[in-house]
Amino acid sequence: MNVSPILAPSSAKKFNVRTFSLVRKTVEPDALRCQVERPEAGAFLAFEGWVRNRNDGHPVTGLTYEAYPELAVTVGEQIIAEAEERFDTLVVRAAHAIGELNVGELAVWVGVSAAHRDDAFAACRYVIDELKERLPVWKREHYVNAPPQFLPGTPMRVAPAHEEALGD
Amino acid sequence: MEGARHMDEAASAVKSVHVRYFATLRERRGLEEEILQTRAATAAELYEELRKAYDFPFAPEHLRVAVDDALCEWDTPIGDGQRVVFLPPVSGG
Description:
Chain A is of the alpha+beta class. Chain A has helices at about 10-15, 30-35, 70-85, 115-135, 160-165; strands spanning about 20-25, 45-50, 55, 60-65, 90-100, 105-115, 135-145, 150. Chain A contains five helices and eight strands. In chain A, strand 7 (about 135-145) and strand 8 form a beta hairpin. Helix content of chain B is about 30%, strand content about 25%. In chain B, a hairpin with a 2-residue loop joins strand 3 and strand 4. The longest helix of chain B is centred in the middle third of the chain and has 12 residues, at about 45-55. The interface of A and B includes residues 74, 96, 133 and 155 of A.
């Protein structure tokens, strides 16, 4: 019988597989989900962030995401490594779209497989919350009746939330 | 002594730095990147030069700095040939 080799969760680094990627235009959730599948997994959780048609009461027709790609990949992989360390997961992956997106399109994807659901939920939540505040990515909104503009955003956090709280 | 004098000279010497701009800073500057000649000794000094020259809308405490693609402190010395990025408040996800 031909049994395909199973990659251990820690093998991502060894084989130089990117755990976080920036994707021009469209994030493909099915392909990402395949990377997360493991026979040991009893739980799979994915978060998808979509382009919404309104923000702050204004109709939005689309978005452009701009990234500092070199640093964004480093920070994204760091956040995923933190989630793997803090929670009992099998595989954690994430991707963020850059470029122009229409309403309803997928902007960010986080997927986690784990033996049990508690760790999958916690790790998924951790990754999306940290990505929102630490990833060097900027959102420019396009409106019906106004020129496009970058959102004010929040000053980029440089350390995990739990470490910053300890430091204060 | 020799080392200290060398440091002083390095701080005031003219150097070339590669600056990249993103989002609001890119729009304000009208460029994605440039090579600058500067006497700035630290990332903070370089930002003050640029902020005055181009009326950047951010106080330093709302920005972060990366040198050679790694996040660093504002007082990080910058040297000839280094790549510097000032990161506006983020809005990913």
